């Protein structure tokens, strides 16, 4: 089944939808049973999408979990209240005091904070590594290295990682390989086909797609799913049925939305490359982007998220650029239908293992579904304000 068709049908079995097109929103805490036999059955199968207790899920959650597993080829799917919770749960499911974690240096800032604050406080050591290290990561493996964590591309600076090469090292050392695949989604990147053990997504972004719900997802292969499932449950994580429903609905248009985001973003990225104020554009589909050859090999397309670096500009000039936008809104997150803009004036402070080669400010864009002529006009006006403030 082709991915576009799979997105329409996944998670829509009659056991979840009945006679309706979409699964209903089933909100529940307590699940009641008529007989001891029913209770015994539910208890024995409480991790297998059998109604047991609200925190284990309802039909609404099970429908989404089925869909994600079908799309990814994973053995199981756990849901969390946000993407950061999914990252935290995945790490804590496989790390304990005295363990060592290898974390990519370009990782999402909240993930770095989890490592430096929460994990460090639990006696778990983190070593950050260059995203372009590839098979060279074997030199960083220690006897107590339990997890290697990838984010490809990096959600600020867009370097691509060689997932198959790192997977081969992880398997040789019996180390769990995790990937934050929020950028790739199940549509653009086959994480399990490349050798990942645990795949994490902030479904808040492209899966929900409308900036109106927060949800995290972590899936695992057959070997690692039982541990991820039980530890996530023990940590108390769960997600609302309403948010799970919105994610299921978002899946149906995911491929067509990504295609339009890709088209729009590439137009804007190519336009920015021609601006004299721009030092570089970081977009995985551009040949100049670090790891572009990996992008061509592993991904089937791109989306709306990329960044660019200005040759110069202080905080005042960057504020003038960003403030006063008509179509780009200033805000965190991405993946909705709207265009977003956010600055980073000190990217080097977020890296410890790999140097950032530019001194100018970085600006990250999420290109939404607006007409690109309007977005470019917005950026032209921003550059005019930028020059006036220099």
Automatic annotation (TrEMBL):
- UniProt cofactor(s): pyridoxal 5'-phosphate
Cite the InterPro entries for this sequence: Cys/Met-Metab_PyrdxlP-dep_enz (IPR000277), Cys_b_lyase_bac (IPR006233), Cys_met_metab_PP (IPR054542), PyrdxlP-dep_Trfase (IPR015424), PyrdxlP-dep_Trfase_major (IPR015421), PyrdxlP-dep_Trfase_small (IPR015422)
Q: Report a single Gene Ontology molecular function.
A: cysteine-S-conjugate beta-lyase activity
Where N6-(pyridoxal phosphate)lysine occurs along the chain? 205
- What UniProt keywords apply to this chain's record, in alphabetical order? Lyase, Pyridoxal phosphate
NCBIfam families attached here? cysta_beta_ly_B, PRK09028.1
What's the protein name?
A: Cystathionine beta-lyase
| Species of the source | Rheinheimera tangshanensis
């Amino acid at each position: 089944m082709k991915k576009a068709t799979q997105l329409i049908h996944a998670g829509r079995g009659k056991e979840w939808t009945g006679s309706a097109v979409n699964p209903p929103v089933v909100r529940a805490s307590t699940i009641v049973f008529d007989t001891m036999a029913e209770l015994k059955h539910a208890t024995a199968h409480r991790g297998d999408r059998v109604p047991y207790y609200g925190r284990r899920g309802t039909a609404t959650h099970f429908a989404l979990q089925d869909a994600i597993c079908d799309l990814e080829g994973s053995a199981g799917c756990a849901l969390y209240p946000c993407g950061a919770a999914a990252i935290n749960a995945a790490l804590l499911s496989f790390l304990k005091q005295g363990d060592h974690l290898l974390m990519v240096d370009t990782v999402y800032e909240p993930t770095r904070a989890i490592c430096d604050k929460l994990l460090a406080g639990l006696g778990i050591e983190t070593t950050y590594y260059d995203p372009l290290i590839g098979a060279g990561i074997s030199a960083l493996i220690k006897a107590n290295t339990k997890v290697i964590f990838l984010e490809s591309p990096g959600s600020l600076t867009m370097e691509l990682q060689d997932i198959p090469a790192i997977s081969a090292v992880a398997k040789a050392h019996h180390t769990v390989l995790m990937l934050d695949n929020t950028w790739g989604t199940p549509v653009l990147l086959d994480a399990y086909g490349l050798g990942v053990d645990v795949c994490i997504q902030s479904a808040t972004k492209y899966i929900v797609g409308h900036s109106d719900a927060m949800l995290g997802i972590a899936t695992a292969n057959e070997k690692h799913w039982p541990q991820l499932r039980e530890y996530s449950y023990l940590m108390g994580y769960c997600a609302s049925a309403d948010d799970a429903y919105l994610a299921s609905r978002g899946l149906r248009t995911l491929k067509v939305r990504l295609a339009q985001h890709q088209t729009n973003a590439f137009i804007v990225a190519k336009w920015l490359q021609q601006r004299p104020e721009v030092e570089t554009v970081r977009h995985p589909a551009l040949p100049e982007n670090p790891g572009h050859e990996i992008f061509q090999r592993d991904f089937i397309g791109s989306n709306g998220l990329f960044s660019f670096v200005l040759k110069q500009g202080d905080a005042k000039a960057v504020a003038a650029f960003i403030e006063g936008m008509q179509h780009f809104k200033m805000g965190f997150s991405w993946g909705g239908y709207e265009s977003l803009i956010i600055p980073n004036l000190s990217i080097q402070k977020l890296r410890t293992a790999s140097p950032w080669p530019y001194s100018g400010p970085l600006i990250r864009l999420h290109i939404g579904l607006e007409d690109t002529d309007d977005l470019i006009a917005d950026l032209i006006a921003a550059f005019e304000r930028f020059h006036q403030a220099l």
